[in-house]
């Protein structure tokens, strides 16, 4: 027993070495053959490099068989970072921002500009710090509490799936400016964003809510040539005349109270440039239709429950385009309607005929 084991132990080492040498020889032959084949593909005049050793017929046959069994295309390499483990999952916990903003309580005499002047920030930043209530409520109601940002910018609420890059791109500001704002509490190198937390975006602006339709919608660069041009006169997009919100510097349109599912009509002829749930800073608009009237004017129809048009579609004044609803940031079914001239909101009531009333 012991002698047998001794023998095995003594010779097993040689066997492994011998197997290794055989493998090496086979490998050299396969590679050599590939080089020969490659050389042959060029031209017959190309000389075979003299350093390659002649290959025996039997070995060549084996090698050819092996070569043919190899896959013709390189194997796919997976690059999926989402499968990578989270760095230090047990030792790192993202920190929430620790903002400590001033709060301004609106008085009877406040205007956006007077508040801005009082705190040394731009009127835009008052909107920027209060995006949650600016679009769908009367911001300057007496007693309303406004967040006053310490610098000009926007207070952004992080949504699931957002990244620093996507947020920076949304507002057109450098990522470094967001990281660099102290109370955002973003720690290099982790930079983990927590949904529903709020980040100060220095230098950003919600301004007039400039809308950029997706590039795919008829934007061929340069000046857009629209197939149809609006009449320049607008009809009411809904049958109701009861308003819950009027146009102001903080609310770029009117809110018309309407039962859920009421028909919405194109206020003028034009081309649909957006017809989907609103994205980015327009998230609050819910289901949104934008019509470009080809004359520098656009109309916006927000919070819809149904959309009956598609981007690129030409619609004519009075066409049924969708149904009123309560999607996005909305506290009851209504149509949020805007008329914009070259990105700037206009008071729709200056262009719509007939009396209106405030909802009681
Ligand atoms: Zn509104």
Describe this entry's structure for a reader.
The chain is an alpha+beta fold and 360 residues long. It folds into 3 domains: 68 residues, no CATH class; 101 residues, Membrane-bound Lytic Murein Transglycosylase D, Chain A, CATH 3.10.350; 117 residues, Glucose Permease (Domain IIA) (Distorted Sandwich), CATH 2.70.70.10. The protein is built from 7 helices and 16 strands. The strands form 4 sheets. Strands 5, 6, 8, 9, 10, 12, 14, 15 and 16 form a 9-stranded mixed sheet that branches. Helix 1 packs across helix 2 and helix 3 packs across helix 4. The radius of gyration is 34 Å and the shape is globular. Zinc ion binds next to loops.
Please outline the helices and strands.
Elements: H1 2-42, H2 57-69, E1 102-105, H3 112-119, H4 123-129, H5 131-134, E2 145-148, E3 153-157, H6 164-171, H7 175-179, E4 198-202, E5 242-245, E6 254-257, E7 263-265, E8 270-277, E9 287-292, E10 297-304, E11 306-307, E12 314-315, E13 320-323, E14 334-341, E15 344-346, E16 357-358
Parallel strand pairs: 5-16
Antiparallel strand pairs: 1-2, 3-4, 5-6, 6-14, 7-13, 8-9, 8-12, 9-10, 10-14, 11-13, 14-15
Helix pairs in contact: 1-2, 3-4
Bound molecules: zinc ion.
Residues 135-136, 245, 251, 253, 255, 336 line the site of zinc ion.
């Amino acid at each position: 027993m012991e002698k047998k084991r001794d023998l095995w132990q003594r010779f097993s080492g040689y066997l492994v070495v011998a197997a290794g040498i055989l493998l090496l020889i086979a490998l050299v032959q396969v590679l050599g053959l590939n080089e020969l084949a490659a050389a042959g593909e060029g031209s017959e005049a190309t000389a075979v490099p003299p350093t390659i050793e002649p290959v025996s017929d039997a070995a060549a046959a084996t090698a050819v068989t092996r070569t043919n069994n190899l896959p013709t295309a390189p194997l796919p390499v997976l690059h999926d970072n989402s499968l990578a483990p989270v760095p230090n999952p047990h030792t790192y916990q993202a920190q929430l921002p620790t903002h400590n903003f001033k709060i301004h309580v609106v008085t009877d005499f406040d205007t956006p500009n007077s508040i801005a002047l009082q705190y040394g920030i731009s009127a835009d930043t008052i909107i920027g710090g209060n995006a949650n209530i600016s679009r769908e409520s009367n911001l300057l109601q007496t007693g309303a509490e406004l967040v006053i940002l310490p610098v000009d910018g926007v207070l952004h609420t992080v949504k699931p799936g957002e990244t620093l890059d996507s947020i920076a791109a949304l507002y057109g500001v450098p990522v470094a400016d967001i990281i660099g704002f102290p109370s955002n509490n973003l720690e290099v190198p982790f930079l983990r964003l927590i949904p529903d937390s709020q980040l100060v975006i220095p230098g950003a602006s919600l301004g007039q809510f400039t809308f950029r339709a997706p590039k795919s919608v008829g934007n061929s660069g340069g000046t857009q040539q629209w197939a149809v041009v609006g009449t320049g006169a607008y009809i009411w997009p809904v049958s109701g005349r009861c308003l819950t919100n009027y146009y102001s510097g903080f609310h770029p349109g009117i809110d018309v109270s309407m039962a859920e599912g009421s028909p919405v009509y194109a206020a003028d002829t034009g081309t649909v440039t957006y017809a989907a749930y609103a994205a980015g800073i327009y998230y609050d608009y819910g289901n949104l239709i934008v019509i470009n009237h080809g004359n520098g004017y656009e109309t916006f129809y927000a919070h819809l429950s149904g959309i009956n048009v598609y981007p690129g579609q030409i619609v004519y004044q009075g066409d049924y385009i969708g149904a009123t609803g309560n999607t996005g940031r909305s506290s009851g079914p209504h149509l949020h309607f805007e008329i914009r001239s070259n990105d700037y909101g206009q008071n729709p009531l200056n262009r719509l005929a007939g009396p209106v009333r405030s909802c009681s």
